[in-house]
UniProtKB/TrEMBL annotation:
Fe2OG dioxygenase domain span: 72-177
This protein's name: procollagen-proline 3-dioxygenase
Lineage, opening ranks: Eukaryota, Viridiplantae, Streptophyta, Embryophyta, Tracheophyta
Top class in the EC scheme: oxidoreductase
Molecular function GO labels: iron ion binding; L-ascorbic acid binding; procollagen-proline 3-dioxygenase activity
Cofactor field: Fe cation; L-ascorbate
Keywords: Dioxygenase, Iron, Metal-binding, Oxidoreductase, Repeat
InterPro entries referenced in this protein's UniProt entry, alphabetically: Oxoglu/Fe-dep_dioxygenase_dom, P3H, Pro_4_hyd_alph, Pro_4_hyd_alph_FE2OG_OXY
EC number of the protein: 1.14.11.7
Biological process according to GO: collagen metabolic process
GTP-binding listed as a keyword: no
Domain of life of the source: Eukaryota
């Protein structure tokens, strides 16, 4: 029986483990600085803008399921539009006090919220409990796969405890009855413009945005004298260093460095394989984290890659680059270093499996790219992002 005074729904294990891990991969390889201190976000519009629009494909069926379930439970079938979809992570120090989700004039259009937890308290992070001011459940302990739905008004005032360690990941959606705030119409327009004007229309290689979208400092300022680039930081906490062949100096433009070809190193070993840019390397690294156990049987096609020892001059370049883009290494480790990273350190790293991940990532990306291209005509016709059945696309 629904609580009419505080309408909400809590569902355990609504998303599968594999769905959670895939969304984690997408977020950690694409995220930018978020809307609150120590918060990072990945929006669909950002994925489109950075030539990673194919990565929305795993989100589409989940959005549909959530919308259908929410409309069914709250008795508003065919009334709602998705107002916002985002992958959001809260890191150490992030919290929010009592509020409703429509408590600002620019948020009045929000009628419902759905929060999908992608990792688990006590395993991947500590803290971050979700509390309602009134009604049941009073407190939700985030666990991977669980979903919480509630009205966005003052019937469901809530807060989130401070994260004390690790990174708390969610897929968060807001829904509106106001068609003028339909996210899909705006996104389809972005898709069309992006595909028409893209300089790399048939490429799955991501293109980094400007450095200020990736630069984090404790006071959320874009001051590059403090803080760190989050792409470099995510690689660092997983044990990787970045090597650029060209010379760098303290006057280098960080935005230009993000788009330079690079190679990856671990300790004194350098993988002799060139990545197009930092996001390309980051996506492969997090794909490897996601799929490591399955890569042993993958047929490796990158036969020319080899492992070489870092020379003294190369090691110096790695160190110089780290000092340029990781001004505050301790802060980077405080924000991103978690139990998951510790597990990654403990498992036996294998360059052969990592090279397999390069080829497997490419197969994965091309498959999604093909799906999005075959779905786009239907999305344009209906002005809605939805899971186009394969028989329609034939």
């Amino acid at each position: 029986m629904a609580d009419l005074k505080h309408p909400r729904l809590f569902i355990r294990s609504y998303l599968s483990f594999e769905e959670c891990k895939e969304l984690e991969f997408i977020h950690k390889s694409s995220s930018t600085v978020g809307y609150r201190p120590n918060v990072f976000s990945t929006t669909i519009s950002h994925l489109i803008a950075t030539n990673s629009s194919h990565l929305i494909m795993p989100l589409i069926p989940i959005r549909e399921r959530l919308k259908d379930k929410l409309e069914e439970f709250f008795g508003c079938e065919y009334e709602l539009f998705v107002e916002f979809t985002g992958l959001i992570s809260w890191c150490k120090g992030a919290s929010i006090g009592w509020h409703s989700d429509n408590n600002r004039p620019y948020l009045r259009q929000r009628d419902f919220a759905a929060v999908c937890y992608l990792n688990s308290c006590g395993r991947d992070f500590n803290g971050g409990f979700f509390h309602f001011q009134d009604g049941e459940p009073t407190t939700v302990m985030p666990m991977a796969g669980d979903v919480l739905m509630y009205t966005a008004d003052n019937r469901n005032i809530h807060s989130v405890d401070e994260i004390t360690d690790g990174e708390r990941l969610t897929l968060t959606l807001w829904f509106s009855r106001d068609a003028s705030h339909d996210e899909d119409v705006k996104l389809i327009s972005l898709f069309s413009n992006n595909l028409l004007h893209s300089s790399v229309p048939d490429s799955c290689i991501p293109l980094p945005a400007s450095n200020n979208m990736y630069w984090f400092s404790q006071d959320q300022a874009s001051d590059e004298l403090l803080g760190f680039n989050i792409c470099w930081a995510r690689l660092h906490v997983l044990g990787y260093d970045v090597y650029l062949a060209q010379d760098n100096n303290c006057d280098s433009d960080a935005s230009l460095l993000l788009i330079e070809p690079l190679r990856l190193a671990r300790g004194t070993e350098l993988l002799d394989h060139e990545f197009v840019n930092i996001l390309h390397a980051l996506q492969v690294v997090h794909f490897y984290c996601w799929k490591a156990s399955a890569l042993q049987s993958f047929k490796v096609r990158v036969g020319t890659s080899k492992i070489v020892e870092l020379s003294k001059s190369q090691a110096e370049k790695v160190s110089d680059l780290k000092s340029l883009l990781l001004k505050d290494t301790e802060l980077a480790e405080t924000i991103f270093y978690s139990l998951t990273c510790r597990e990654n350190e403990l498992h036996c790293f294998d360059w052969t499996n990592f090279v397999a991940a390069i080829a497997a990532w490419e197969d994965y990306a091309w498959k999604l790219r093909k799906e999005i291209r075959s779905s786009l005509a239907y999305w344009r016709a209906h002005q809605s992002l939805y899971n186009v059945q394969s028989d329609k696309r034939l």
